[in-house]
Amino acid sequence: MTLIRQMAALWEVPLGLLSYGFSRVVKATLTLISRYYNPTDTKVEADWQVISADFLKSPLKLLWTMSRARWNLHSLIAIAGPFTVQSEITLDVRSLWQSAPTWTAVVYTLKGYKTLTSISSLTVPPDQDTATITLPPGRYLVGLRHYDWRNPVQLPAIAVDGNPALASETRSAPPDFNQFYRGLASRRGLLFSALNFYVYPLLRWMQWLPRSVVKPIFLPVPNPETHFFYGALDRGEQLTIDLPPTLRDTHSLYFSLYSRDCFPMDWYPLVTDNHTTKPLPEQGVYILRVHPKTPAAMAMSKPAIQFSVT
């Protein structure tokens, strides 16, 4: 660590702590607002929402999203719910297989938006029509991630406790659907800078913190089947990634770059065993998602990937 970086820590760490506290206040405030307008959640009917430019047009939805997750820029994401469940929820997985060769359906608690369980193309055979998930009584959301999706996407029908709860829907989803993320940077401002200022120092000096602390803060709702590698880059720095020779045979690798305030900058799959990024035009952070292609690959340990910064 250079002297300049050591000096930067003197002000970035205290401001990062303030930012983290502010982010928790924002998250709690948004939760209270939603409860105020709908104290019991009983008036809200379950529906489908696809993360898109229209979905994020509302400043409140953009703020809600950025206070709860990191952008998965490589998948088409749909959210279903809320559902009041007594014992089980059932998905029509035929629609998921028709929509994408690789998919994940994750169940989140409505309160706190915590990951509870998941099913995926790695755990459900292609010839199976439905998949039932047993749950304790409560209120839940279902989040879908479609990788290499086909146009149009068929969002699955969902039943709760044996009763139809949400009908299937077909949505147009061309291959460039996620290009709307590139326009989000025009909405950057002081609010989002304050909201996510803590992220850069968290990752820049994460070697001084337990991994059990860093990961849930930086990745509050990660895909349970994906391995994650992440870090911070200074302006002008380049990241070199060296992969084990056979890793791309067993896993799909998705690289994402974000600005310091966590707006999308660039994203692409890794198609070579050695990759060096362009010099970063500003301070930012990155995520490398390593997703298994087969059930056998899912059982493999976290791969040994080499990262170097110049």
UniProtKB/TrEMBL annotation:
It comes from the Bacteria. InterPro entries: DUF6208. This is DUF6208 family protein. It comes from Leptolyngbya subtilissima DQ-A4.
